[in-house]
Protein: Protein kinase domain-containing protein
Amino acid sequence: MKKSGINEKEYPSGKTLKTCALKTVKVGEKLGEGGQGAVYRVSYDGKPKALKWYFSGRISSPKKFYENLENNIKKGAPNAAFLWPLDITEPGAGAVNSGTFGYIMDLRPEGYKDFSRFLLAKEKFASLTALTNTALQIVEAFRELHNSGYSYQDLNDGNFFVNPKTGDVLICDNDNVAEYGKNLGIAGKCRYIAPEIVLGKALPSVHTDKFSLAVVLFLLLMYNHPLEGKKAFPPCMTEALERKIYGEEPVFIFDSEDDSNAPLPEINNNAIKRWPLYPAYIREKFCEAFSKKALGDPSFRVIEKDWLKVFIRLRSEIYKCDICGNVFFADPVKSTYCPDCRTEHLFQRHIELPKWDIAVHKRTRLYACHTELDSDDFKTLTAEITVNESGGFELKNLSKKTWLVIDAKGKQVSRGMNKTVPMEKGTQIVFGNVTAAIL
Structure:
């Protein structure tokens, strides 16, 4: 008996399996199905987990694929964002050669939604902070992946689960991840693969991952594809035209020197509206990522460290208008006008740091990336603004370090954890190896 071209016997529902770690897996309900196989809820050594089970004939080199999974399980996940393979079912007689096996991973927690639902406006972020957290976590995860010696090889909108309230990210479909120089026969998903893969000039790699990452980030912020302007919607789309749009002659929809693929209001309305809402440094970074130079030469692609820098800055510039309540990105030093009510906002104080300027207002927060030299840690909170009894702003030390505070007259005082520093002009704060000035 057949179902969707797959033999019913290949479905392990109700079966008990053994893994290479000698654990018992009791297979429960099916959670979803794709081209390579299906995902099931299972009891793994008595604990709730997920099993991804492969169908025979759906993997080009099953033995190579199985060995790669074994290797990835042995090395472990690059960071906690990855729903990484934890264990794999026993090979069994002929099972590996036929491609019928599976691996164990954690279940998706409650509250996480498919990233593709955000692109279809079926889910919305609770805040701009949540959206920027998603960007930061995606970039951080792939930086850790690449630093661990892997390339993802099939990065696309279907790889992410996102918590709309917090912006926390989980990355799934990690079975195609391979070490540098290895390829499992996966080219990637159309619209996300780099031009050199479209043209058959390269296989998936760290360099092609960087292109795919830039596409995902643009989609996250603009809700449109960076290469799909007026060129991408002819009366009749053909394979030859797809090759031209994504491979031979890709053009960024906001390319300032080439408007041949400019955005169209009826197609790119999201991008047209959202593009000017982001600060110039974000727009410039996307122009760099999708420049003719970067599209044609992988060595010019934006690296994760540079993405982290601009998104850390972006999150620190989120501000709520105290007149109309609109949330937007406000310059910490210069005047910014609220996009909704047009009220001018000019902060009375800002914190000048070696890498950035941070506006002082009642929602200001500093993280390790601000107060520690060469840190990219955007999660560890080290300080926040509080309001004293007279309505003045003070910076509260939330770190375990003792700060050295030097006021405008040169007087020095130490401030430990939970102590505060008045935000008086001319004050300097030595966080350790980073010094800030209050201006």
